[in-house]
Amino acid sequence: MSHDHRSGYLLFVPSSQGYRLEERDGQAPERDERVELDGAAYVVSRVGTSPLPLDARPCAYLLSC
Description:
65 residues; globular
């Protein structure tokens, strides 16, 4: 079984219906950085590993501002 070598990063985004994962290109935002998505503001609470199996991309976990 091979490891996933996709580039970019994931965003773990809170919503009123739970959480969703969004894939993004480029470099993941840093901890405490503000991120705007669909007109809503978030702050990065931490950057960790992807919650997806065998996915080596970083994941930025967001909190609503």
